[in-house]
Structure prediction request, 708 residues.
Amino acid sequence: MANQNVGTPRFYIDHLQYIRAIGMGYPQVGEDIFNLNPSSFLGNKPLSNETNYWDFGFFPQDDDESGDSQDEALLIPNVNYGKLNYIAILGHNLGTVMQGSLDVNFRDNIAYGSSGDVALSNLNLVEVVNLPSHTSIPLDGFSIATFDDYIFSGINLFFSLNDTGLTDNKIGSLSLGGYYDMPHSADISLSLTHGYEGISKQETIGGSTLSQTNYYKPPRWGGLDAWALSGWLHSYSGRRVWELSFNYLSDKDLEPYHYNMDRGMGEIAYNKLGENPNWNDDGNWFTNVLYFTNGGQLPFIFCPDPSITYSTDTWTKPEFAICRFDMETFKREQVANGVYNMKVKIKESW
Amino acid sequence: MGYQNVSTPRFYIDQFSYLLASNQVDNSYYDGHTGIDKNVFSYPGLIGLNPTSQFILTDADYFSFDIPTNFNTATPIGNKTAYVAVLGHNLEAIGMRVFTEWHDGDGTKPGIAENEIVNLHGATDYYPSFDGYTLYKFTTEPSSSETSRFLRLVFHKAGAWSGLSLSSLSWGFAYDMPVAPDLSLSLEHDYSGITKATSISGASFSNANWIKPPKWGDLEAWQLKYQYYNHYRDFPRMYSGRRVWDLSFSYISDSDLEPRNYTGTGEFDLNDTNYVLSEANWFEDVLHSTMGGHLPFIFQPDGGATYETTSVIYADGYDDVINEIPEFAICRFDMDTFSREQVAPGVYNIKIKVKETW
Prediction:
């Protein structure tokens, strides 16, 4: 599609932002890279040389001096992080400095140890842009990959870089969460706006125009523009706003069967439709997008057309934007029995 | 229906809230009360529909509340269906049962036959399977006008017990709309508690005053939780936003909307011999008892939805999983006026806006 056309959009929802917002986890050791704000100063300065890992969540200490934290970990309830299946590293220079590999390890409160229970490197990374494997990041700028669905209920996770020499690493932001593909494309009557409301103009008494620019594009992520890859041209201007309508969405694409999600011990209950108990298995708009973004509060990564494939040969890549919903209410209107229309307004934010 | 679809909705109208708001009951109602049951005025906020605060109770064996009804008739139920809601409880965790009786305030306590709506009966009747909330209905009349004086909610566990959590006790009458709403309905998830500001450099700052209803104790509103030995299940409820329903109802009969007249609730039959109660109607059963948009009520968007669980048996006990469960919300009408528009003689259309509140 290209040319900024919109296909069937994809939402990369950063679950760590939600966990932070509800106070069930926060950054610990290392800089706060778990913040979907890659234009922070982190992209401009090397990360600390003393560490090669960054912690997020709640971390038990060895209070009873038993030599491990297993007893203490059991006192911390596991937190439902939801279904994770993407990682994005934004505003980095790992294409230049990473010599080894990266990984994310997840831990729950059972048999708590120094290593993780599950490692991202075992979850089959699939490159979206500039992240072909956990041992390779070819270019500076940003990297996104998907991986096998992993429903994480635990107490903490840590991101690590191995064998990089630990010099001049720069990472603006690490985003981890689940992506959601809309069930079908938006209506044809969509709009894309480039907003320049950061520019104010004034006309003097002599008729001259004076123009003042507070901003005309997102701040750079370190040495590169937002969403730029090193060595690639990238023209950024304005704030993008998409207004999209989706018609004839099925009820099950919008909401779970009921809100009392079953994440128990694997026993299966079937509803009257003979469906599986974990009503979120197939994904839906409410539980995958609205819930984890708190409506319009938290940012997410929007990809207007994920069907565009990344190719360094032809210099093509899908478009992305860090956005928030510019809406107070999310309304679905019934147009046939169990069939609904809805509209969304998505505004690039930083 | 599931998937938050709306069918013929049901309204659960809290009786005590109306009596309190219209100054029909106060502490003097307990004059002559023998004191064997708790005076609900000693537990302010417990009776009604504000389950975001919680009482933690300790006692032994029976513990009960006498809720004033302001009735003085042997047939207060008539052709209606009454309900009881116990919201924000931990009855399952402490192994306690709940049941209801009429009471004259002096020891005469005719029983009531309860019918489960959600989470009344576990492995043993009247012992809920889950913590969270319980809802049941009944049509049993009191045996006399005297015993209609109080509705008695009884909690029981043999021996001393402690740590009973109760957020809210509600009782009243259920009203089913006579027809399903029109197709062109809408459901909104409202996030107006979030304010966003843009700095001079265009950066966004977002602040959330609220994103969902407050919890009822440790659980989300309308969440169920189960724990039995090592079997732990807490049906995490993904609550987000404030729900708002815009509904239109077309071609409703005049008798479904208003009573025959405002001076009484009944009428004589065609032969003028038998006095019959007026049919359930929108004005008397809903508008009047909620004072329009003033008082909250429990809204069930699909009144026909049922509650079903499956028990999974283990060597050391059993585990319940939820197959079907109705949706509920504590709501108010978000309207200043309630208009009915005539489309045929004695046939009307109405529109309502129902907004989740806390």
Helices of chain B lie at 15-21, 91-94, 254-257, 282-290. Residues 10-182+213-356 of chain B form one domain. The mean pLDDT of chain B is 90.
